[in-house]
TrEMBL record:
<dbReference type="GO" id="GO:0006433">
    <property type="term" value="P:prolyl-tRNA aminoacylation"/>
</dbReference>
<comment type="similarity">
    <text>Belongs to the class-II aminoacyl-tRNA synthetase family. ProS type 2 subfamily.</text>
</comment>
<dbReference type="InterPro" id="IPR002314">
    <property type="entry name" value="aa-tRNA-synt_IIb"/>
</dbReference>
<dbReference type="InterPro" id="IPR036621">
    <property type="entry name" value="Anticodon-bd_dom_sf"/>
</dbReference>
<protein>
    <recommendedName>
        <fullName>Proline--tRNA ligase</fullName>
        <ecNumber>6.1.1.15</ecNumber>
    </recommendedName>
</protein>
<comment type="function">
    <text>Catalyzes the attachment of proline to tRNA(Pro) in a two-step reaction: proline is first activated by ATP to form Pro-AMP and then transferred to the acceptor end of tRNA(Pro).</text>
</comment>
<keyword id="KW-0547">Nucleotide-binding</keyword>
<dbReference type="GO" id="GO:0004827">
    <property type="term" value="F:proline-tRNA ligase activity"/>
</dbReference>
<dbReference type="GO" id="GO:0005524">
    <property type="term" value="F:ATP binding"/>
</dbReference>
<dbReference type="InterPro" id="IPR006195">
    <property type="entry name" value="aa-tRNA-synth_II"/>
</dbReference>
<dbReference type="Pfam" id="PF03129">
    <property type="entry name" value="HGTP_anticodon"/>
</dbReference>
<dbReference type="InterPro" id="IPR044140">
    <property type="entry name" value="ProRS_anticodon_short"/>
</dbReference>
<keyword id="KW-0436">Ligase</keyword>
<dbReference type="InterPro" id="IPR023716">
    <property type="entry name" value="Prolyl-tRNA_ligase_IIa_type2"/>
</dbReference>
<keyword id="KW-0030">Aminoacyl-tRNA synthetase</keyword>
<dbReference type="InterPro" id="IPR004154">
    <property type="entry name" value="Anticodon-bd"/>
</dbReference>
<dbReference type="GO" id="GO:0005829">
    <property type="term" value="C:cytosol"/>
</dbReference>
């Protein structure tokens, strides 16, 4: 991508409305724009990061056996009247009427709709277990939307819904998502700790929130500090192995970890004082087992091996991609801007032409840009005629992991500089070596 032809509206000044660093940096880097309170557009640079986050989420959902579909944002009130949640949900739900005066709503979550899909076609235990997910916009009319896309009114959610014949089966499905979440957050460069959590309006008696420790987090959390060093389940994890997943679950629930709603002071005080971590955290995922709450209310039954009809056991599993992007920034930035983990960086490399219009610089940058693009790298080429200082500041701000800097003096020697955004280390090397550094 040539920066001169791209749309990346950088802000020079710090936006006054931004209270936390991620919100400030997302606005300054031209990633998002507020359209109305708690409702955001994702501008091209932000969209690239969001897409990469979603690709990792999708990959790990698929690995764990979940199947993607797409459900609409607008739902008919009837389904929610069946479950009883139409009245129970309160003002967070945006209620609308269509031209025939039929009550509709903008979905805050999809338990009812997915249960309706399930009951319409699954009739036998032989079709279980089943886990259906989508990545879709939601709307919750939050009283206090704040911190940009961290707590917005319209936001994206990956929501998965599992269906099993028995409670034991449903618990295995729960553990599949538990392990998938550990892998997902790790691939996003984050350390997320599963904590016992309250189930709120979703319901049920088994629930974990996945929390990233951060000073700006909205939740107060308490846990054993050893979680920070625990191993993540590997790529070869067998999601069908009941014992294997039980071992992962046991390990990751063996030590104290709870959000403030579930906090047990006495149990926490039993943890040796030096091992106690009392901190603030960002909830990036939340998983629930709620048994037959929706299937009984909505009549979703299957025939079991005993020939009888059984209400199906369900769980639901949410991740907030539009919250994860600022959460990643909260965990990874410095005074100059964002430092993206390679897995979600909007570009892999930025090529900085320090003197656009200078033949040798132009030729060198074009050569590098073409070679790296051909090798499948996402390259941003800063071919604008801005001052070198502005270009460096922009490259640092947007946090691309590597910068290749081509200035007239180095280029005259057939060389360029390669800068690592995270460490700040700069290395001068031949043009060929710079290309091979990323292609080889
Ligand atoms: N149906 C269940 C799971 S599918 C559910 O709705 N869970 S939830 O309410 O906990 O939301 C799931 C995830 O969505 C949260 O962990 C969080 O990451 C994200 N999320 C929830 N509300 C917001 C919001 N207002 N802004 C941004 N992300 C949000």
């Amino acid at each position: 991508m040539r920066l001169s032809r791209y749309f990346m509206p950088i802000l020079k000044e710090n936006p006054k409305e931004a209270e936390i660093v991620s919100h400030r940096l997302m606005l300054r880097a031209g990633m998002i724009r507020q359209q109305s309170q708690g409702i955001y557009s994702w501008l091209p640079l932000g969209k690239r990061v969001l897409d990469k986050v979603n690709a990792i989420i999708r990959d790990e959902q698929n690995r764990a056996g979940a199947i993607e579909l797409s459900m609409p944002t607008l739902q008919s009130a009837e389904l929610w009247q069946e479950s009883g949640r139409y009245d129970a949900y309160g003002k967070e739900m945006l209620r609308i009427k269509d031209r025939q005066d039929r009550p509709m709503l903008y979905g805050p979550t999809n338990e009812e709709m997915v249960t309706d899909i399930f009951r319409s076609s699954v009739k036998s235990y032989k079709d279980l277990p089943l886990n259906l997910y989508h990545i879709q916009l939601k709307f919750r009319d939050e009283i206090r939307p704040r911190f940009g896309t961290m707590r917005s009114r319209e936001f994206m959610m990956k929501d998965a819904y599992s269906f099993d014949l028995t409670r034991e089966g449903a618990e295995h499905s729960y553990k599949k998502m538990f392990a998938a979440y550990l892998r997902t957050f790790d691939r996003l460069g984050l350390r997320a700790i599963p904590m016992r959590a309250d189930t709120g309006p979703i319901g049920g008696d088994l629930s974990h929130e996945f929390i990233i420790l951060a000073d700006t987090g909205e939740s107060e959390v308490f846990c054993h500090k050893d979680f920070v060093g625990f191993d993540i389940p590997g790529e070869s994890t067998d999601f069908d192995s009941v014992e294997g997943l039980q071992a992962i679950f046991d390990k990751w629930t063996s030590l104290y970890a709870a959000t403030s709603e579930m906090h047990d002071e006495a149990a926490f005080n039993a943890v040796p004082e030096g091992d106690r971590l009392s901190a603030r955290g960002i909830e990036v995922g939340h998983i629930f087992y709620f048994g037959t709450k929706y299937t009984e209310a909505m009549g979703a039954k299957v025939q079991g091996p005993d020939g009888k009809e059984h209400f199906v056991h369900m769980g639901s599993y949410g991740i907030g991609p539009t919250r994860l992007v600022p959460a990643i920034i909260e965990a990874s930035h410095d005074d100059n801007g964002i430092i993206w983990p390679a897995s979600v960086a909007p570009f892999d490399i930025v090529v900085i032409n320090m003197k656009a219009g200078d033949q040798a610089c132009d030729d060198t940058c074009e050569l590098i840009y073409a070679a790296l693009s051909k090798a499948g790298k996402d390259v941003l080429y800063d071919d604008t005629d801005d001052r070198a200082g502005t270009k460096f500041a922009t490259a640092d701000l947007i946090g691309v992991p590597f910068q290749i800097i081509a200035g007239p003096r180095a280029v005259a020697n057939g060389e360029v500089e390669v800068k690592d955004r995270k460490t700040g280390a700069r290395e001068t090397m031949t043009i060929e070596a710079a290309i091979n550094r990323f292609v080889a």
